Amino acid sequence: MTLATQLLDWYYENARDLPWRQDKDAYKIWVSEIMLQQTRVEAVKGYYQRWIDRFPTPAVLAEASEQEVLQYWQGLGYYSRARNLLAGVREVCAAYGGEVPEDEQLIRQLPGVGDYTAGAIASIAYNRRVPAVDGNVLRIFSRLFCLESDISKQATKREIAGLLHRHMPDSSPGDFNQALMDLGSMICIPRRPRCQVCPLSNLCEGYAREVQDTLPVRPAKKEPVLVQLAAGLVLQDGKYLVRQRPAKGLLAGMWEFPTVELTGGQAADRCLTAVLWHEFGQEVDVGEEQFHYIHIFSHRKWDISFFSCQWLSGNGVMKEGQWRSLTEFSNMPWAGPHHKVALALAES
Ligand code: SF4
């Protein structure tokens, strides 16, 4: 039997029952694949269902505001994915009558869509024989063919895409790609692959040479940079002082409480007092730390303390910031740990 036959036989017996597999709607596959980038399947399920209930088609999503879209994405992180998805469906509505195009080259040109996502959509929704190479496939093929080159290198990715294409069947290419996704999440997992129950163990060179645990080869991981932050919770007339982050960069456009980065061991109370006066025009007395969170992004680690601040006067010039009530909090997309604080304040 060929690799494809063995894999597909296993898949038809063991495929995961996932909400986005109910039909072969290209838009739904697109949404699920974008959500699944950097996020676990179990975590995505709830978000996906809420999203599809609210935005069942590209046309409905295209009409939504960015703020609402970010709110539905809140908690998934990497918000540029949501913005790109919105821009992508708007393009699909403007250029393709609301239908995701079948040609993977055209899909690939949509905002935020890379080779992997284009391959997944084209193969699963339209049965096109296109590889979808993600971290799962790189890991599985490194082990299957005992490849010792760094999987972060383009040359290795090209080599694996070539191998994948060669082994891809003419019929059911979408099932083949999905079978690899399932094998990667259930059997050929990152640590301690379950080779004894793997449908491909008789073909696997890494397993035969007992080096499967050492593969794939990756570059050394860099530690995220620690960023010390202090945020002020300023309440005045039943409203909190908040601001929207800049339109570009980390957590772009999300809401936060006034925040300052502390460098070189600066005192949080003095920095907050200064920032709240100079940037927000508010005179405050910084009090006790009320919340403290560590939030890890891919390259940064926020160590953020939230201080309750007593409002004294607001005579300065408000360069930025707005006053928002607790009832408005639930309609605002919040930046990372600020969301936890907003929820806690709204529930208290
Ligand atoms: S035999 Fe082991 S290493 Fe090889 S593909 Fe299967 S699970 Fe992965």
From TrEMBL:
Its EC number is 3.2.2.31. Gene3D superfamilies: Helix-hairpin-Helix base-excision DNA repair enzymes (C-terminal) (1.10.1670.10), Hypothetical protein, domain 2 (1.10.340.30), Nucleoside Triphosphate Pyrophosphohydrolase (3.90.79.10). Its cofactor is [4Fe-4S] cluster. PROSITE patterns: ENDONUCLEASE_III_1, ENDONUCLEASE_III_2. Binds 1 [4Fe-4S] cluster. It is an enzyme of class 3 (hydrolase). It catalyses: Hydrolyzes free adenine bases from 7,8-dihydro-8-oxoguanine:adenine mismatched double-stranded DNA, leaving an apurinic site. One of its GO terms (molecular function) is hydrolase activity, acting on glycosyl bonds. InterPro entries: A/G_AdeGlyc_MutY, DNA_glycosylase, Endonuclease-III-like_CS2, Endonuclease3_FeS-loop_motif, Endouclease-III_FeS-bd_BS, HhH-GPD_domain, HhH_base_excis_C, MIG/MutY. SMART domains: ENDO3c, FES. Keywords: 4Fe-4S, DNA damage, DNA repair, Glycosidase, Hydrolase, Iron, Iron-sulfur, Metal-binding. Residues 35-186 form the HhH-GPD domain. Adenine glycosylase active on G-A mispairs. Belongs to the Nth/MutY family. NCBIfam families: mutY (TIGR01084). This is Adenine DNA glycosylase.
